[in-house]
């Protein structure tokens, strides 16, 4: 089953100084962290902060290309988590065909944000990720990285800034 989620924000992993993309369900109960690269974080931050750039970034170029070709990004599915790596599909409609394009979640989400479409995460991925339950009614998993992150105060990370 797919769960619709939204980009809740970006944070910095205090141990690795790498960006973390935070996805939260629409009920604002479950959150999953996805470690991403600096370039993708910059692209996502640009959209989150509604920054207008003089020249298109790569994800803007992909959106522009899809629009010019008459394709429509329908949604993104984060559909697997294997060996600490998330997998996603960018679902695109073009010429009456629905195409499912393999993509890194960070790239697919950066494109989805520019196209105004939804992001879905497979419930099994949420379970594998050991999602943070913001209600606090699930038993803790002491070896889970998300439990460590969930236990940290909000001000520990801060927001990702350009």
Radius of gyration: 16 Å
Q: Quote the average pLDDT.
A: 86
Form type:
globular
What is the H/E order?
EEEHHEEEHEHEH
CATH class: Alpha Beta
How many structurally independent domains?
Answer: 1
- The CATH superfamily appears as Bifunctional nuclease domain
Strand order of the largest sheet: 6-5-4-7-1-2-3-8
* CATH architecture grouping: Roll
Q: Care to describe what's here?
A:
With 162 residues, the protein is an alpha+beta fold. 29% of the residues lie in helices and 36% in strands. The chain is built from five helices and eight strands; from the N terminus they run βββααβββαβαβα. The protein has helices at 38-48, 58-68, 105-115, 123-129, 145-151, and strands at 2-12, 19-25, 30-35, 72-82, 85-94, 97-103, 118-122, 132-133. It has an eight-stranded mixed beta sheet. The N and C termini lie far apart (35 Å).
């Amino acid at each position: 089953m797919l769960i619709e989620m939204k980009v809740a924000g970006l944070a910095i992993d205090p141990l690795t100084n790498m960006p973390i993309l935070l996805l939260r369900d629409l009920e604002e109960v479950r959150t999953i962290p996805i470690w991403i690269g600096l370039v993708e974080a910059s692209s996502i931050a640009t959209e989150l902060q509604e920054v207008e750039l003089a020249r298109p970034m790569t994800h803007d170029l992909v959106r522009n290309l899809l629009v010019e070709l008459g394709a429509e990004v329908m949604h993104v599915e984060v559909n697997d988590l294997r060996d600490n790596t998330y997998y996603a599909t960018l679902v695109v409609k073009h010429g009456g065909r629905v195409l499912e394009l393999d993509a890194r979640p960070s790239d697919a989400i950066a494109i989805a944000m520019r196209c105004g479409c939804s992001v879905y995460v497979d419930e099994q991925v949420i379970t594998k990720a050991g999602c943070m339950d913001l209600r606090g009614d699930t038993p803790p998993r002491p070896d889970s990285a998300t439990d460590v992150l969930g236990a940290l105060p909000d001000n520990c990370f801060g927001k990702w800034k350009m």
